[in-house]
Amino acid sequence: MSETEADLRERVEQWMVGQMPIIQMHGGTSVVREADPESGQVVVELGGTCSGCGISNITAQNIKADLIRDFPEIERVEVKVPSTGDTGSDTVEGGRGGDLQYSTENPGHF
């Protein structure tokens, strides 16, 4: 039986809650935008105080490396951080937010 996107997304979200509590502790949020078990692609978006944070690029690199290490089916991770201040208002357990929107003005921005 193959894993569905919803299953992988939930597992990654639970991982974020357990492995990256510092995001929420510092007022940030995270949401898994994509989790494709067939392609191995995962997209995580950070928001809240992560936007404009001087160490968000380090956080993004840690998330990328750790997800690939901890999930054999994950081959590629993209972490997006909004460059605008608009991060939505819905935040749930573990700092995951539901309405984050990243800016496409600078696609290389973390």
Automatic annotation (TrEMBL):
Residues 101-110 have a biased composition (Polar residues). It comes from the Archaea. Gene3D superfamilies: Fe-S cluster assembly (FSCA). Residues 80-110 are annotated as: Disordered. Pfam families: NifU (PF01106). InterPro entries: FSCA_dom_sf, NIF_FeS_clus_asmbl_NifU_C. SUPFAM superfamilies: Fe-S cluster assembly (FSCA) domain-like. Transmembrane segments: none annotated. Residues 21-78 form the NIF system FeS cluster assembly NifU C-terminal domain. This is NifU family protein. The lineage of its organism: Archaea, Methanobacteriati, Methanobacteriota, Stenosarchaea group, Halobacteria.
